[in-house]
Amino acid sequence: TFRLAFEGQDGLYYVWRDDVLLTPDGIAKQAGTGANRFIVGDCCSGIPMSTIDLAYIRYDTTGAFSPPPPKITTLGSDGFELVAGPSDIYDGENLINGWVNAGGDTNFELGDGFVSMISAANNGWLQHDNDESVWELGVADGGSWTAEISIRLANDEGNGLVIWGANGAERNILQVNTHNTQTLTGTVLDENDNTDAFHTFRLAFEAKDGLYYVWRDGVLLTPDGIAKQAGTGANRFIVGDCCSGIPMTTIDLEYIRYDTTGAFSPPAMVAAPSLSIVNNGDGTITVTFEGRLEAAASVNGPWQDTGETSPLTIPADQAQQFGRAVK
After folding, report:
1. Distances from the Cα of 2 to the Cαs of 15, 57, 66, in angstroms?
2. Is the preceding peptide bond at 68 cis, omega within 30 degrees of 0?
3. DSSP state of 78
4. d(CA 48, CA 237)
5. Structural contact between residues 278 and 288, judged by C-beta atoms closer than 8 angstroms
6. Is residue 258 a contact partner of residue 139, using CB atoms and an 8 Å limit?
7. What DSSP string runs through 184-207?
8. Which sign does the torsion angle of CA 79, 80, 85, 89 carry?
9. Residues 143-162: pLDDT tens digits?
10. Which of these, 277, 269, 280, lies nearest to 295 by C-alpha position?
11. Which of 31, 195, 243, 262 is the most exposed place for a label (fewest CB within 10 A)?
């Protein structure tokens, strides 16, 4: 979809492709003319048009209009209303800041950068329950919301947990198992391993269309959205074992974050620049890299720009150094 708008007061033109603004500063007129017409097609000998499929033409002469804002906008999780790390949830002895162990018997232990949820019986979960949390105050009217958690599951048979979001009108429940991610109703969304490292799950509800969206490590698993799991009068956010069919054992929780001002997608992931090191067998090593090459004596830095260009060939008998490519 291409949109072209002319703003008469400043005499500038603006262009969008699929709702992305290509000319944020506007562009000046191409030429003056006495003609008054709108053309779609091959106007010039330098454009050898062959076949074009046209879905529609629309125009409006009452003003210069941008496309409507997307229903789901981008927001990094560090900008959420609530950002809770392990020490914001558990102080080593007790749950704090309004977090409670609800519904069953779950123990908590602080680890290095995470809090472990250890279930001794079914139906034990973590939730805010003090009538004044960001969630409880923010979504009671049935509005849009976004929640994100980072977790690692112990590789135990049947181990799993749910991420449950309810806004006083409806709810949806995501089930994360050791080797897949699914809806509570059983639809499998992803079959990647959730025990090998911490993985980030985001669940967003877009109120206008009434659809839920799920991301795992920034990858959208539900491009068409999914409908509510059920209607509800409850207003709560749950992480843990809500149901007898999920025998949760141990879950390591890195953080919980949520926002009740909208439905937000994660920022686009930027691919890391490549770095290759090859022993040439003749006493030299060739380093091929994208972007800039930085070097350090320790893997923890400090890192310094080498100023070199790729490919770089160096003697193999030099002092050991660590290298990284950065953009």
Report:
1. 7, 10, 11
2. no
3. G
4. 58
5. yes
6. no
7. TTS-EEE---SSSS-EEEEEEEET
8. positive
9. 899 999 999 999 998 899 99
10. 277
11. 31
> How high is the pLDDT of residue 82?
94
Decide if pLDDT at 270 tops 70.
Answer: no
**Apex CA 166: angle with CA 217 and CA 100, to 5°?**
85
Average predicted confidence (pLDDT) for the chain: 90
Sequence-ordered list of residues with C-beta below 8 angstroms from that of 69, at least 6 positions apart, any chain = none
Sign of the torsion formed by the C-alpha atoms of 172, 178, 181 and 186: negative
Query: What are the tokens at 231?
Result: 């209607």
Contact 290, 98 (CB under 8 A): no
Dihedral sign computed on CA atoms, order 227, 232, 238, 239? negative
With 0-12 CB in 10 A as exposed, 13-18 as middle and 19+ as buried, what is 195? middle
Joined tokens for residue 195: 């025990």
Q: What is the CA radius of gyration of the chain?
A: 27
Tell whether pTM > 0.70.
Answer: no
CB 158 within 8 A of CB 217: no
Calpha distance 216→253 (Å, rounded) = 15
DSSP 272: P
Residues 6+ apart with CB under 8 A from 215: 200, 201, 202, 204, 221, 265, 266
Token pair of 113, please? 């950068």
For the chain, give the number of residues: 327
Q: Single out the residue of 142, 270, 141, 256 nearest to residue 203, CA to CA.
A: 256
Q: To which residue do tokens 């920022």 refer? A: 267
Residue among 242, 286, 205, 27 at smallest CA distance from 214: 205
Query: Parallel, antiparallel, or unpaired for β 73-74 and 264-265?
Result: parallel
Q: Residue 324: what pLDDT?
A: 87
> From CA 47, how far away is CA 49, in angstroms rounded?
6
Give the position of tokens 């930085």.
294
Closest by alpha carbon to 89, among 258, 260, 259, 253?
Answer: 253
3 state DSSP class of 312: strand
